[in-house]
Model the fold of this input.
Amino acid sequence: MKAFALAMLVLIYWCLHQDTWFWRSSQPMALGFLPPGLWYHALYTVGASLLLWVLVRLAWPSELERETDHE
Done:
């Protein structure tokens, strides 16, 4: 069940990457200088790093750790 939930989380996050809602808008500027599309992708990058952290913490295969401990 955990693997399915993590896979769905990755799929949902991938769908969020397709940001068709900011293609034609240039206002309002975030922080006074960032267009909405760039601001969205900056936040998306932070979210992607958090998602990868969650995946490593919850889905990292323990067999890999055991192999390196024996060497």
Summary: The chain has a mean pLDDT of 85. The chain is about 70% helix and 0% strand.
